[in-house]
């Protein structure tokens, strides 16, 4: 995570600060994220540093190992040098020995040659001397013998001759002997020479072998030396390499140290920055905590205020009256209308708005009267009077407070009363802006925003009609089949003051489209069920019942409110003599239920002991929504058409009775 990311988080945090605290990222989470990213970054840097340190350690240990091995290698080298020196010494000694042996051999050969020469000379000299001696002896003897003993000479000569022969023979023998001796000597010499040669050859051979061995040893030593030299060169190279590695490692180490220093500096800076950020975050956290606690306090205050608001709202509703009546005049296209005037409440002491309708002269004029009668005005006061130009939106603005009361846990009834065609359904069920769709929409909105205060609402709806005192389910698909046939029972639970209707379809209301669809299909069903003489929607009461069950998990509070939106049957009085059969029964049923509604409301206003809820299905059904702390609003829808004057007057009278206020002026 970069500082930019952190600042982005801070920015998003600042932006989030404006959002509701429940949706904003918690500051502790932000701090935790930043711390985690910081720790990851720091972890990465430390890992990188450790890795570099590991490499440096490896290189140092390699260098240390080389440095440790170097003396051993130097010792090896010295040993090899000593060996070489020893071998060289031996070689020189052997060479000297060989030279001496050569010399000795040469001197021996020379001596032998000399001896032989001497021996030969001596032998020759001896021989020559002997020969000479013998010759001399012979000559003298011969001479003397010749001279003296001529006779004997002959003899002697013979003798000499013999002697000579003998001598010659002897010489010959001697010579032979000498020759054999010479030969023997020569043989001996040869043998000796051969022996010497052999010895020489052997010695030479030995020497040669020695020399070869020495040469081989020298070669081996040379090789070893070369190997040693190569090893030394390799080691030197290695040393150089290692030195260069050491140098680069040193450089690397220096670089790493520089880098480490830089990183340390950076870490320090980051640390400082982190400290600053942490402080800032602490501050922010503190702020956030303050914010959270102030939010909690605000929420508590809000809840208290919500309670106060509910009370105040209810008090206001109570002050306005738990039973209120609004009057609405339907706009008419044609101008055939009786006069009616609306007055705001400024001049009225009871705070009511007024409507004055003026009776058309035609209907006032009694027979046989010749003077022009004064127009007869009927003045009625209601909580609100809406003229022809009023819109559904304006109407809803006034009643939205009652929807809030239902959300606050009160039972609320909103009735639309009036003659057929006076605008009850228009006011109550118009597709987009009628009270029912608008109320449902407002309930959805308020229930959604109430979630902020811990409220969860379940919103369910039932839609039914009461026709001839029979209840029909307007939400069921088998409406037409079950029409007026299935008996739906109304059951009250006194303990919980709740009402249930048997076999009634209950739908979870989810959106406005769904409600529009419900209204549409109910209208379609009722239109199909109508006959020419019997417009079912006009002749029956329709009740849209919205059940609001809220639970606040924070406070444990629960709320059960009910909003009943009732479109009453047309209130026109048809002379009973004019109708018979079903129409009569229908009319009687409507009149009974409408008058019992009036009676119930009047009794409630009078705070009577007995409230006649049981007099009609309608009032019995709405028992817990009429009276007590429940709120009731009745719209009296009127038409200003001339022909509707009497019905309008009746409606206004009925409504006034309900409102417990009747003003009549001339
Ligand atoms: N305030 C109004 N503005 C415009 N049109 C209206 C208004 N009130 C009623 N209407 C029209 O008058 C006609 C009759 O109205 P509506 O059906 O609401 O009367 P109703 O009282 O419900 O009659 P019923 O008792 O027969 O149901 C309708 O066409 C309706 O659109």
TrEMBL record:
ATP binds at residues 418-425. Residues 322-661 form the Kinesin motor domain. The keyword DNA-binding does not apply. It comes from Ogataea parapolymorpha (strain ATCC 26012 / BCRC 20466 / JCM 22074 / NRRL Y-7560 / DL-1) (Yeast). One of its GO terms (biological process) is microtubule-based movement. Residues 1-26 are annotated as: Disordered. Residues 1-11 have a biased composition (Polar residues). One of its GO terms (molecular function) is microtubule binding. Keywords: ATP-binding, Coiled coil, Microtubule, Motor protein, Nucleotide-binding. This is Kinesin-like protein. One of its GO terms (cellular component) is microtubule. Residues 63-122, 218-287 form a coiled coil. Belongs to the TRAFAC class myosin-kinesin ATPase superfamily. Kinesin family. KIN-14 subfamily.
